[in-house]
Write a structure and sequence with these properties.
The chain has about 450 residues and is an all-alpha fold. The chain is built from 20 helices and no strands.
């Protein structure tokens, strides 16, 4: 009877928390508050040791002193600096003239800038809003199809989820390292190979570039089938194209990407040190471009502080939630469920990935990372799946959560800056092909794991 009560309370904890999150209650407070409430209920019923909550201060201290997580605020600062200083704005404007006379030229420009901003900022909201404000009016002016325009902007903005240096990959690396250690306890392995953000960065490069190629190929196909939907961008004010100006606008963020990623992948610097280098580099670019001012620095610092506080607050809340869930034996329930699924480990992985995909319709990526991955990660890794490969699969799956209606955050960001003539149905129709391409990439990586594991194996 006691075991049944444990199981019932563990399931109720998960279900009630999910319902509250879907209803829109604050994530961190919901995770921690619901968990503590269930811990008190369990203590009253004499089935949960309340003394277990005594380790919460140690958990909070370990989160705040985690050296890997120090990279998070630094990468956020770097992205905000490039956004608020107008570097990204200048880049998109200049590239719009570079591909001006080609069918879908402006669409290629948006995709290319989205890729660069993803690699230099990693902040989806900033990328979607910036490109929505800058490129959408031009796309509408030159009679671009409303759906494809909306889809390109939203999808390009989400590239920051997978193209390194990505904040998501840093957070995933920390969560997967914990899952890897838990998996070693299950399998009896004494010294598992560590999972670092360097491994995930290296593993994400080829999948990220493949996704960009998929997007570009879709633009090419669409512009060939429906040439009137992606007409050439002809700006009469820019007949004499200044290639030096375009090259100058591209070179600064491109150099920053090379320095940050290169220092990580070559082992010259840790991700945290490279993040600090990126923050300094973004500030230097803004200064030499004469875009840096005290007001800009103030805005960047405040915005970075807000986002960082949100991330760490959620991380602390998720830590409390997982502690109580484990106290009720929820982790063992998940392990038993996954290991007993008929069809073997691959079918278990499919069930988990499908669950994450559908949760993306209702929950944001932080909630999924901090709540779901610590629960399912140890079981999947103990089944023999490579944690780096698994991490990239999850990261790409999480990327779709930004595009899937009704709660895709990229759709919210874009809706906020899109004019009234862009209907919600245009946005939803526009992102469908890009969601399909992301799912295709997932199957491609599943079939050919070397796409992910090739580069990490070289640098390890």
């Amino acid at each position: 009877m006691e075991i049944i009560t444990h199981e019932i309370l563990a399931i109720l904890l998960f279900i009630i928390t999910a319902i509250l999150l879907i209803l829109g209650y604050p994530v961190a407070l919901t995770l921690a508050g619901t968990a503590i409430l269930f811990a008190i209920i369990g203590n009253i019923l004499d089935i949960f040791p309340i003394v277990l909550l005594g380790v919460i201060p140690n958990r909070i201290f370990s989160i705040l002193t985690n050296e890997t997580l120090i990279a998070v605020p630094l990468f956020i600062f770097m992205g905000n600096m490039l956004d608020k200083s107008g570097i990204a704005t200048q880049l998109l404007t200049n590239l719009g003239t570079l591909w001006g006379k080609k069918k879908g030229g402006l669409a290629y420009s948006v995709l290319f800038v989205g890729m660069l901003m993803a690699a230099s900022t990693g902040i989806v909201g900033a990328t979607v809003v910036t490109m929505g404000i800058l490129s959408l009016p031009l796309m509408l002016k030159w009679k671009y199809d409303k759906s494809i325009s909306s889809g390109i902007i939203c999808a390009s903005g989400t590239l920051g989820q997978i193209i390194p240096p990505s904040v998501v990959l840093v957070l995933l690396a920390d969560i997967l390292q914990g899952a890897n250690e838990s998996a070693s306890v299950i399998t009896g392995e004494l010294a598992p190979n560590p999972v670092s953000s360097i491994d995930l960065f290296a593993g994400a490069i080829f999948p990220g570039l493949t996704l960009v190629i998929f997007y570009a190929f879709w633009i090419f196909i669409y512009s060939s089938i429906k040439p009137n939907s992606l007409k050439p961008f002809q700006n009469n004010k820019n007949k004499n194209l200044n290639f030096v100006k375009v090259l100058k606008s591209i070179s600064s963020p491109l150099l920053l990407i090379i320095i940050v990623l290169g220092s990580i992948l070559t082992g010259i610097a840790t991700p945290t040190e490279s993040a600090a280098l990126g923050a300094i580099g973004a500030t230097a670019i803004s200064y030499f471009s004469k875009k840096l001012a005290l007001d800009i620095l103030k805005k960047v610092s405040i915005e970075s502080l807000k986002i960082t506080s949100m991330v760490f607050f959620i991380l602390i809340g998720a830590s409390v939630f997982s502690l109580v869930l484990r106290g009720y034996g929820g982790d063992r329930m998940v392990e038993d469920f996954l290991t007993n699924i008929s069809g073997g480990p691959q079918y278990s992985l499919f069930i988990v990935m499908l669950t994450i995909f559908f949760l993306g319709f209702f929950l944001d990526f932080l909630q999924i990372i901090f709540v779901i991955i610590p629960i399912v990660g140890p079981s999947l890794i103990s089944m023999g799946f490579d944690p780096v490969w698994l991490g990239i699969l999850i990261a790409i799956n999480l990327q779709t959560s930004f595009l899937t209606p009704p709660f895709g955050f990229a759709l919210f960001y874009f809706r906020g800056v899109a004019p009234k003539e862009i209907k919600t149905i245009h946005i939803y129709k526009g992102v469908v092909p890009f969601i399909v391409m992301q799912i295709m990439l997932l199957f491609l990586i599943f079939k050919f794991p070397e796409i992910v594991t090739f580069l990490p194996n070289i640098i390890s």
